[in-house]
Automatic annotation (TrEMBL):
The keyword Glycosyltransferase does not apply. InterPro entries: CBD, CBD_sf, GH, GH10, GH10_dom. Its EC number is 3.2.1.8. Belongs to the glycosyl hydrolase 10 (cellulase F) family. This is Beta-xylanase. Residues 42-378 form the GH10 domain. The keyword Signal applies. It comes from Favolaschia claudopus. GO terms for biological process: xylan catabolic process. Residues 408-433 have a biased composition (Low complexity). GO terms for cellular component: extracellular region.
């Protein structure tokens, strides 16, 4: 399988900002939920589905050529329960010669899912990247929309069968330089990739309308299962910004100009994030976008979440866990979000690079703090508890309370809520530097902590667990 650097990788830098110190964060795993030991969330995921009233699909990427196949079998039985082929369903893999469909790897990934009792989603039927060598070529606009796209989409969607939960029908069709008020066509033309322009690098216009997108959706709708969601999938989207506005107007435009009804459409938010201020959307920004789509009857999905770190410090791993927790809560507590994909199942396999430590499992395949926090959030939701506050905002804004295990409340809803911590333990804090003072609710110790260990007057540093001590009244 050839691997090409996706255009989106370069664009990640747009959402990422200069690395800054991460804030001290509050987590459910500080409050009684496990942060060590083996993780098996299969039954919790079933409980989440029951609570949601429909299947909640939580998973990751897989391909048969990956090393560590026995680890994959184990983790996809106990943790990730939904499978996306990382590369095996892309155009270069599935139509290597024009008109010759080859679903070998895509079907093998689906079989891996079925064998392990997991579900399967399709990624993707159209993308300007990872295309076969014969495409893009010197085809006319009429050939592309009339034959090439319908033929490819039909072969793939029909060939994979009706149980596919959702398909990324088009991937990354909106530009990075868009501005508010652009029409859907302007949003797509701003991308400047084939087939809106020719593939020869000259930038010469080719398809001057959205017909190639409509052709893909109409064909997918014709051959997909009758509950399969059909998505536009995009990076650097999720908040109240021009690119997200483009995505929302494009999906409505697709609904108006194709046979696909709203209740079969979805927006996939890739979510390749960076653990730094501005490197991710806040939970409330995501919630607002998800509810805008819910009002239109359109599904929201987190399709490719990873959170890169600039160092593997304990504080960064906690920040990563907080961001992951917020994205998961945004999806869990939304009425229209039922698929949540973690892109690459472990750090050493991540397309962001192993040193970015951007996934839920470390390079040895062991769960990281973010994996435990994910398990805790799922458990918290399944137990019917209130939505935790926005942990990635830091303890100045959000401090979770509760004794964990899914038995108690955690906090208020949305961002900005602060709640009282019920601390049950008190002992000497570890780590950190002296000569400075942490504010009330701030961190004052824990493994890897390099900040202040003294607490503001009227508060005492109490150990929550090995990783976290906090200044409490
Ligand atoms: C990435 C894969 O993870 C890599 O293995 C491959 O080399 C390039 O593509 N957006 C997408 C995914 O939609 O298909 C990309 O996956 C990551 C960015």
């Amino acid at each position: 399988m050839t691997t090409k650097l996706a255009a989106s990788f370069v664009a990640l830098a747009m959402l990422a900002s200069v690395a800054r110190a991460q804030p001290a964060v509050s987590l459910l795993i500080d409050n009684g939920y496990p942060s060590t030991g083996s993780l098996n969330i299969a039954s919790v995921l079933s409980q989440v589905s029951t609570k949601k009233g429909q299947a909640f699909h939580f998973g990751s990427t897989y391909d048969t050529y990956d090393a560590n196949q026995s680890w994959f079998t184990s983790v996809f039985t106990t943790f990730y329960r939904h499978v996306v082929s990382e590369n095996g369903c892309k155009w270069d893999a599935t139509e290597p010669s024009q008109g010759v469909s080859d679903l070998t790897e895509c079907l093998a990934c689906q079989k891996f899912a079925t064998t392990n009792g997991a579900t399967f989603r399709g990624h993707n039927t159209f993308w300007h990247s990872q295309t076969p060598t014969w495409l893009p070529g010197s085809f006319t606009a009429a050939q592309i929309t009339g034959t090439i796209i319908p033929q490819h989409v039909q072969a793939e969607v029909q060939g994979m069968g009706t149980s596919v939960t959702s398909w990324d029908v088009v991937n990354e069709v909106v530009g990075d330089g868009v501005s508010n008020g652009m029409t859907p066509l302007q949003c797509v033309q701003n991308k400047g990739d084939w087939p809106t322009v020719t593939a020869d690098g000259s930038g010469k216009p080719l398809i001057g309308d959205l017909s190639f997108i409509y052709a893909a959706f109409n064909t997918a709708f014709q051959y997909a299962g009758n509950s399969t969601r059909l998505a536009i999938n995009e990076y650097n989207t999720g908040g109240q910004d021009a690119k997200t506005a483009c995505i929302i107007s494009l999906v409505q435009n697709i609904q108006q100009n194709t046979n696909v009804p709203a209740n079969r459409l979805a927006v996939g938010f890739q979510s390749h994030l960076t653990a730094s201020t501005g490197g991710f959307y806040t939970k409330s920004a995501l919630a607002t976008t998800f509810s805008t789509l819910a009002a239109l009857g359109i599904e929201s999905m987190i399709t490719e979440l990873d959170v890169s770190l600039n160092s593997n410090s304990q504080a960064n791993l906690r920040y990563q866990a907080a961001i992951w927790g917020d994205y998961l809560d945004a999806c869990l507590y939304a009425s229209n979000c039922n698929e949540f994909i973690n892109w690459d199942p472990r750090d050493d396999l991540s397309w962001r690079g192993a040193s970015a430590a951007a996934t839920l499992f470390d390079a040895s395949g062991n769960p990281k703090l973010a994996a435990y926090e994910v398990a805790a959030r799922l458990q918290n939701y399944a137990a019917g508890n209130a939505e935790p506050c926005a942990t990635a905002s830091g303890t100045g804004v959000c401090t979770i309370t509760g004794t964990g295990g899914g038995t108690t409340s955690s906090s208020g809803t949305g961002s900005g809520s602060t709640t009282t911590v019920k601390s049950t333990t008190s002992s000497t804090a570890t780590g950190g530097s002296t000569g400075c003072v942490s504010a009330e609710w701030g961190q004052c110790g824990g493994m890897g902590w390099t900040g202040c260990t003294a607490c503001a007057s009227g508060t005492t540093c109490k150990v929550s667990n090995a990783y976290y001590s906090q200044c409490l009244p």
